[in-house]
Amino acid sequence: MLKEYIYDNKFQILIIDNNINLLNYVDILSFSDSDIIVKCPDYTIIIKGKNLTITKMIDKELVINGNIVNIEFR
Fold first, then answer.
1. CA–CA separation, 69 vs 9, rounded Å?
2. CATH number for the domain including 26?
3. How far apart are CA 67 and CA 2, in angstroms?
4. How far, in Å, CA of 54 to CA of 66, rounded?
5. Is it the case that residue 51 has pLDDT exceeding 70?
6. Distance (Å, rounded) from C-alpha 57 to C-alpha 60?
7. Can you tell me the mean pLDDT for 45-49?
8. Which runs of E-coded beta strand occur in 1-74?
9. Tell me, what DSSP letter sits at residue 6?
10. pLDDT at 63 over 90
């Protein structure tokens, strides 16, 4: 139980203002200033918008910023 708490590998998504924070994602499949496709453990997330940028990419944490119009889960 303690090991699961310390090494939390669950996928998480936080949406705050025009920022999307993804924790424990698998891979970035596609990236442009109008859409970003990210593979997650159980599904794929498609983020659409304008002026999208990746502002943080550390280990398995990703922060996307921009004018987010739509988020789709497949």
1. 28
2. 2.60.40.2000
3. 39
4. 9
5. yes
6. 7
7. 96
8. 12-16, 19-23, 27-31, 35-39, 44-58, 61-73
9. H
10. yes
The residue range of the domain holding 13 is 2-73
> 44 pLDDT band (50/70/90 cuts)?
very high
The vertex-53 CA angle with 10 and 11, nearest 5°, equals 5
Nearest C-alpha neighbor of 38 from the set 57, 22, 49: 22
d(CA 5, CA 42): 20
Say how many domains are in the chain: 1
Could you tell me if 47 and 68 are in contact, meaning their C-beta atoms sit under 8 angstroms apart? yes
